[in-house]
Fold these 2 entries.
Entry 1:
Amino acid sequence: MKKNISVISMDSVLQEWLLQKLIKEPPESDSAKELLSGIYDMVSGEVNSLLLSTVKNSEIASLNLSDEMKIGELVINPKSRSVTRMGQAVSLTPKEFDILYFLAENRGEVFTKEQIYKAVWSENYLLDDSNIMAFIRKLRKKIEPNPDEPKYILTIWGIGYKFNDKV
């Protein structure tokens, strides 16, 4: 099965190296200027991540990447960073929303706690499994019809979590 997304941490040394490499030796590519601009944005702190894709810009528009996701009783809207369940607004903290959106965007894929942490936080992973577990527990209380028998965010024992792709 092909992975939907791969998260790779990029430190300031790598950002600076890429920036200098693109300035000094720009490749003959239509995307080079766009990548250079994205790296500038990262170095300046305007953004903390970039999404690199082999999908062409003309195809991205048809993917509806920013449109809301309807999954069972949930509606997740990344533009407004809002979630509703059965038409009722669900109040999430920014990190709860980020975790939910990351898992929902990658439905069916199992992630370790470390992978979830690296995808949502820009800092290095802290060896504290209880942090992610607490966020998942709070999320389940807010989005699951029965948090003790989750139907959206599933625990894969011994590995981590996944968003149910059967909903």
Entry 2:
Amino acid sequence: MKAFLKRYKVFLLLIIVNIIVGFALPEIGLKSLNLTKKNFIEMISVIPPIFILLGLLDVWVDRATMMKYTGKNSGLKGVLIAFLLGSAAAGPLYAAFPIAGIMLKKGSSLFNVFVFIGAWSTTKIPMLTFEAASLGIHFMITRLILSIIGILIIAGITEKLLNQEQQKKIYEINQ
């Protein structure tokens, strides 16, 4: 029971805060409840396909292949693969994290996983086409170039800021 409370303490705290707000300010509480319901329905529609893809990725791609193409010694090839995987993905950002976990389990480097998450969040191909149509090709290209530079810088800094013990713990969590 203690482990459950420790693991879900933030979630449980938010439920308590929502209940208090619901009683104190019923209008806001109802909006909060409706928003929670909407988000839950969205998650239920997104999570099952992601888990199916995760299962397929886990079974079909062996560790040696993943390490070869996105591991520590994969170089530019690994960065490009991680970037393209993130850019071609569909769905909200929270769907990227289980995939990132599988990548780590299969031996991808932290840098490439950070690139994958950054690409998922900022360079999705459908978003780029919408940007080009709405804001112009020059804007889209400028933002894409700056996003790529930013993703690489942030991934590099994040990896460097994590010491060996922290990196080891991230890999252990995903085993």
